[in-house]
Amino acid sequence: MASTVYDVTTFPASVSPYTDIGQVINEIMADIRTQQSGQTTRPGAVIYIPPGHYTLATTAVIDRSFITVKGSGHGFLSEAIRDDVDHSAWTETLPGSSHVQIANSNQVGFLVDKSGLPGTNGRLNSVVFQDFCIDGVSSSKPYTGANGNGKVGIKVQFDSDAVRVEGMGFVYLQEAVTIRNADAYSITNNFIGECGNGIRMISGSIVGKITNNYIVTPWGGHSIFIENVENCLIGGNSLLWGARIQFKGVDRAVITGNKLVSNFSGMIVQETTCHEHLISGNHFRRIFGDGGPAPQDDLFGMVHLNGNDNAVSSNFFSFSVPSGSIVPSGATPTVVLVKSGTRNFLSSNQLTSNVAVRHVVDASATSTKVLWSGSSSQLQDLGSGTALVATP
């Protein structure tokens, strides 16, 4: 095997990878630093995790560019299903393939950070996590706050370019993926379940994509949280039960082709002013289920807009909640709330519901256009200069 390809089961580490794979990876990283010490002689390396069950007792720190940590399959198994039914006769009851179990509470599994090393100028480039499972072992809903175990699957703490998280499995974690200041990031084809928060992009970034993920979260956190980002693409994801994409200071995002099923209102939320979002071709399904308390009531909106020049077009909204379960009692649920801003645009959206629903333009919103997205009775206009063309 090439000197730049490391197998955690054959590397001569001080501990067994089955006892502490984090320590083994840290010793591999020390070897990489020794072997690749020159500015122009750092091709990076692959750290391979073969199929097996590994305990991670020490945080694995990735502090060099061009490092790929990869296994041979995401190994995802929904532990919620295991916990809710009798599994004594099942063939398997744990995630499989390349399966890493975080041992300690309030621990990060994989930390991308070189701030503790000399010579920290520049960014970390092309760090990849691929095809293995990170398991928090146990937790209880909503997997955050007092019920959370404090475990984070992957945390990118240092500024980075082209970080990739692909084909991974995450289960029973307070945070599956948290990435700070990443440009040109790619988070795709992952399974995230029974986690308090799915994907968190924090501090800021420019250009990136979150695509084709399965994300199952309850009511306590977010499926996807993004702040201070320009030009992100969120597409082709399936978000379930507590489906929530929350934006804070995000401009020019494209949110398209997603399937969102939630027990709660607020499936796409612009927490602070966000401009020029295109929200198109998504399917929103609001149902009634267990869990709670709800983050917001049914007047908050399945989509909550707070900014300028946002377009909500060609989406399908389905509302199916017993009338006696609507909060506040007797209210007409809001589908899209234009909370503030100017020149927001709703066009060609389809509504289906078991009760009366409506779009709401708040008093602080101006110059809103609503075209072919509902009848005149399905619009509450409190704004200024709203233009309405009702669905024929």
TrEMBL record:
InterPro entries: Beta_helix_2, Pectin_lyas_fold, Pectin_lyase_fold/virulence. Gene3D superfamilies: Single-stranded right-handed beta-helix, Pectin lyase-like (2.160.20.10). It comes from the Bacteria. CDD domains: IFTase. It holds the Pfam family Beta_helix_2. This is Right-handed parallel beta-helix repeat-containing protein.
